[in-house]
Amino acid sequence: MEQKKRKCGVLLHPTSLPSNLGIGTFGDEAKRFVDILAKAHITLWQMLPLGPTGYGDSPYAARSTFAGNELLIDLKQLACDGYLELSDVLEAPSFDAKRIDYGKVRAFKMPLLQKAADAFGNMAGKEDKAGYAAFRKHEAYWLDDYALYVALCDAYGDSRWFSEWPEELKRREPEAVAEACRKYQTAIERTKLIQFFFYQQLSELKAYANGLGIGLIGDIPIFVAPDSVDVWTNQHLFELDKDGNQKGSSGVPPDAFSADGQLWGNPLYNWKEHEKDDFAWWTKRLEHVLTTCDVVRIDHFRGFAAYWEVPAGEKTAIHGKWVPAPGKKLFEHLKTVFGGDMPVIAEDLGVITPDVEELRDSNGFPGMKILQFAFGLDRNGELDTTNPYLPHNCTRRSVMYTGTHDNNTTQGWYAALDGSVKDKVRRYLECPDDQVVWQMMRAALVSCAQDVVFPMQDWLGLGAEARMNVPSTCGSSNWSWRLESLEIPEWRISRLKDMIDIYGRFQH
Asked: Catalytic site residue 347?
């Protein structure tokens, strides 16, 4: 069997792209970024989940697993299309170039997106209207519910359908839903058009990247937010009581990083109900994301073998338990739909047991190797040379990262290490302090891992100030980092390109 080509990718969420409108988009900056990747012989661009974010603005707690984040739509393109005035874009307020202020961006951008949606009916040509009609029909299975959900969130000033909405809407009584559709018809149509803009622009960006030989890596969080449209419209697929309240919550048990574990708060799946209809919701979910990307990373893959269930009312994750999940049946079904060689990366981090490894390997999914996790010491204070994340222990069926969105930047990580561990890092990489980041990248590239991905922050050698997220914390610094400029020094581009070429990760 022919081996897959070795590739190198960069992890950068589109929100982090530079822009004078407060947040990155699918516009010119995204295409310019693709040009830079192509120049450096990078052939993968990994993004975080692209759903519309809610409280905390985490991409992993989106309000829909199918809808797109409206804030990623490029307003300049809408102006070029004639749906906005040029002054709408040119007369924008001043935004912080280093951090996203989601509240300020949302307050500026959403009225303009609604304005563009209203203009579409009057300004759009026959071809665009036909495209929108086809979009509405093809995506109706999620679009209709999402558009109503957005209207109701706005009407009641809250996305918590289970506690803040009227009982008849919480229970989705047909007459109440029909009445709400009539009452909020205008708002519903606007939301559908805004989603059309989102997917139109994302499709154009994907085509542009693919045309330059660059594939997009998408991301599916295993769980969904409790206040999402997914739970509201599919209550039978989740462990809820008759009032819509969660019977338990997702999380992970206590470990070396957290004495109390992590209590994520997502509702758990009613897997028996999923099995009854051949995992239809999961099938649609994977089908949908694979139309927007070329490869998909599935977050918290171990949860398909067994998940950590925390009883309702607990304040920490300590008193949870492992509950088996039907991952084997799920992926057997998905293979019948998508074929045996599904383009999936399994995020197999955390408490990994033999059943998780068997589920990953039996499906041929590459796992993840994180270099920042590779430098643990043994009981004698020496480098544990058996650590599976060390490049010399890496398996081919894996994707090696210097770090992920949840890690510190590699420069920030190294700066925070104590002296003894720093010494082991330098000795393993055989380099001085100022070359550690580059040599971490080189060590990943030279490994036998199928693919290698670096956060953009590592390519630029940025410190802890550029960290994307600190797990189990809330705050304005999470998910808000912005790349100030795409003026990447030529020496950084050429140095990485040379390493990619010499280690066989680019095919002409």
From this structure: yes
What percentage of the chain carries pLDDT values higher than 70? 98
Catalytic residue among 299, 348, 451, 458: 299
Active site residue 189: no
Given a contact cutoff of 8 angstroms between Cβ atoms, the answer to whether 299 and 348 are in contact is no
Q: Which of 374, 384, 487, 505 is nearest to 442 (CA)?
A: 505
The three-class DSSP label of residue 237 is: helix
**Closest listed residue to residue 58, CA positions, set 293, 406, 317, 309:** 406
Q: Is the pTM of this model over 0.85?
A: yes
d(CA 55, CA 72): 17
Q: How many CA atoms lie within 13 A of 356 on its CB side?
A: 20
User: Is residue 406 annotated as part of the catalytic site, yes or no?
Assistant: yes
Query: Residue 368 in contact with residue 347, Cβ under 8 Å?
Result: yes
Q: What percent of the chain has pLDDT over 90?
A: 91
Query: What confidence score (pLDDT) does residue 1 get?
Result: 41
Q: Which of 144, 273, 406, 501 is flagged as catalytic?
A: 406
Whole-number Å distance between alpha carbons of 398 and 502? 20
Go through the chain and tell me how many residues it has.
508
Tokens of 484: 């100030």
- Of 426, 428, 405, 404, the C-alpha closest to 417 is 426
